[in-house]
Amino acid sequence: MAKATFSVWRGDKSAGAFKDYSTEVSEGMVVLDAVHQIQAEAAPDLACRWNCKAGKCGSCSAEINGMPKLMCMTRLNTLDLSKPVTIEPMKAFPLVRDLVTDVSWNFRVKKTIKKFKPRKPDAADGTWRVHNDDIERPQEMRKCIECFLCQNVCHVLRDHAKHEEFIGPRFFVYTAALEMNPIDDENRVDDLKAKHGIGYCNITKCCTKVCPEHITITDNAIIPLKERVVDEHYDPLKKLLKVFTGK
Amino acid sequence: MAEFQTHEHDVLVIGAGGAGLRAAIEASSAGVSVGLLTKSLLGKAHTVMAEGGMAAAMANVDDRDSWKVHFADTMRGGQYLNNWRMAELHAQQAPDRVRELEAWGAVFDRTKDGRILQRNFGGHRYPRLAHVGDRTGLEMIRTLQDHGIHTGMTVYMEHTVAALLKDGNKIAGAVGYDREKGQLRVFRAKAVVLATGGIGRAYKITSNSWEYTGDGHALAYQAGADLVDMEFVQFHPTGMVWPPSVRGILVTEGVRGEGGVLRNKDGKRFMFDDIPDNYKPQTADKEEEGWRYVTGDKNARRPPELLTRDHVARCINREVKAGRGSPHGGVFLDIAWIKEKIPNAPEHIRKKLPSMYHQFKQLADLDITTTPMEVGPTTHYIMGGVKVNGDTQMSTVPGLFAAGEVAGGLHGANRLGGNSLSDLIVFGKLAGEHAAKYAKENGVGQVHQDQVDAAAKALLAPFERGASAESPYKVQYDLQDNMQALVGIVRKEDEMLKALDVIEGLKKRAEVVGIAGTREYNPGWHTAFDLGNLLTCAEAVTRAAIERKESRGGHFRDDYPTKDEKVFGTFNTVIRKGPDGKMQLERVPLTPMPQHLKDAIEQEKK
Ligand SMILES: Cc1cc2nc3c(=O)[nH]c(=O)nc-3n(C[C@H](O)[C@H](O)[C@H](O)COP(=O)(O)OP(=O)(O)OC[C@H]3O[C@@H](n4cnc5c(N)ncnc54)[C@H](O)[C@@H]3O)c2cc1C
Ligand code: SF4
Ligand code: SF4
Ligand code: FES
Predict the structure, then answer these.
(1) Residue B45 lies in a domain
(2) For labelling alongside B549, which of A163, B41, B507, B571 has CA 20 to 30 A away?
(3) What ipTM describes this predicted complex?
């Protein structure tokens, strides 16, 4: 059977380099299979994250031939195997080791977003009535598997390192899911502008392009949120209403 | 003596899947300090992979449903070996737990009148599974995670527990290490909740991830707790079989719930050939009636594709062995055929089964809206686990609780689809509640240094032996081959005895595995550590399976192909560590069921 070469980033914070491994390729293999084979054959301490191997958990994000992807969903037959396939860690986060990065910043950011707050139930038994038409949008946002690939490609984080002022596309998706939830009663619009840096996004759509869940991050999450920010902040009538209704 | 960082909590929850998160939320809200540990990042546990839905008798779609019917279905599915008290509580409390998820932000699919939609699943009499397309587990784990982080718990991501600590007969905490730095940690706690999931990695073909190495089962066993029903492993009938690299990945039962049918290579719907007597009254005998059932006709009976998983898996096995399988050793699962019945079928399929659509498209170059899938059985779930008190979820070790897949009892000999996700939230809550209560009533135990040192020594030994010693990956592969071949879906006495020999040999090899590299994020180290747990679980499954000389639920014996109510229908197998350090097995008689539950079962037999 045919062999292919994988050029895998090995190293930690202090130093590192690409190292070539050659391994056998069989039908249907994905990049993660190749990494596992390399671990078993040649590099038992090669660090990588994975869980589901089916594109459902968002653990195995990496840059394959420079493209941000899930390793478990990248078939080898979609890559040019005549030259070494490069596999490297995501760049927008500090390296831990090899293919593993420190993504803990994302978990801290999430905590700063106001949590879900249900409105009063519709029925006497404490439940809500929600129509199918109203769940499509939030459900699109809730498909997110937290792979953080969108965070990885966003230039505001990757090139400008605005991690302290900007929550990144993943958390605009998260905020949008909450804001669009027909049962939610919280208001996160002020935070979006003041604390979460939505103004930094200049709609390059790079995030949307890499999302393995095909969430239309910019069109369906960020732009509607930006519109809300504009509405609330520049519409005097809305502002006045806000004072009276508390929303 | 090794260096340790020490943490202290009232309640330590090991595992951050649905069960662990729900337990941690409950304990936190009871006002005690909670530490939550997970081997992976938060939100990546197995629960995230669940697809089809969670079972709860809310009666939103069919008002004939009630907790009693759900209870009876669960008991029948489990062939009456279930802990009836757990089955009762589960059926009664699941609806509230599901509604609570909505109040915490979950967005379920809806009925026309705006309530939570429920779908059909194998073994459930009425449409009962609350769901979100085919990514229900993601919805559950994300909802619990996003709610949980605001309740005050401390989350330790990428931390692995290697041993439980005891003070006398009571639990005192745990020892483990963090993956990033490889530093050893001691967690002192008044109560510990195990929520570590299953053991699927003991088998070669499995739907389970690297995490499923039976850690919780082994930790409990080593700490002296009883394990129950370990012979009952669920082989899900529909895993992917082609291409080889995806073999075992799950194809949700939801495909059949939406009208998918099983055919052999001659195009025959072979499930009609073998309908067990106790399911005959509820099963369609004509294709037409089966279709009416999946499209919501309340007067129709379910198609035989929706019989319990153990049965469907064996029928597929039979077709393949008889030479009637698909090209790659499975059978065909066809959902595309519904285009004969409904307009815009492809769109409907993509809407109802989006992640299946993508899974096949991306991993197998196959469009399920036009082409049948190839599927075959895959190791999926373990019914057996830590034996717990049905009301409190406490194990036989004081202060040690268990919930979710690692706990045994609810599912008896076979679990119904959808009954796991509901199990997690019902018993996760109860475990959290009772662990908090226990922590309030009991002081913190003493940590004994000898236990800590022993755990550290065992953990670090593979480094000392170095890379030239046996490879942990090799031992793991050999174990998986052994279990798959000798203690799999069809079992025989002589093969299982052989398996025990092989396991003994592997234990010796596991003791001499070595690894290279540093302690920082080293997967080889993790694999070396996992071996001990996997081997303990493999041995427990094998011993219990040898003891049960009959066929029931997930346990099928070629040499005893029928059910034997007189002898084997009267007890559960219980495994524990004997005083000599060897594995002991006991037959523990079932406790008598109260009359009102017996009545509920009789009622549903009609
Ligand atoms: C593909 C698939 C689809 C499924 N679909 C359904 C479905 O539709 N409906 C249904 O009801 N069930 C389904 N199931 C079954 C169900 O998903 C699982 O049984 C359930 O999610 C298990 O949850 P849990 O909370 O017990 O454990 P898990 O979610 O597996 O969590 C275990 C946790 O324990 C941690 N852990 C383990 N060992 C250690 C250790 N040593 N130290 C520290 N932490 C540790 C892990 O890191 C993880 O956080 C499905 C299963 C699979 C694999
Ligand atoms: S569209 Fe906005 S959030 Fe997305 S990558 Fe571009 S700048 Fe970042
Ligand atoms: S929005 Fe898409 S790319 Fe971003 S984290 Fe979620 S799934 Fe990944
Ligand atoms: S391993 Fe889960 S997304 Fe790749």
Answers:
(1) yes
(2) B507
(3) 0.94
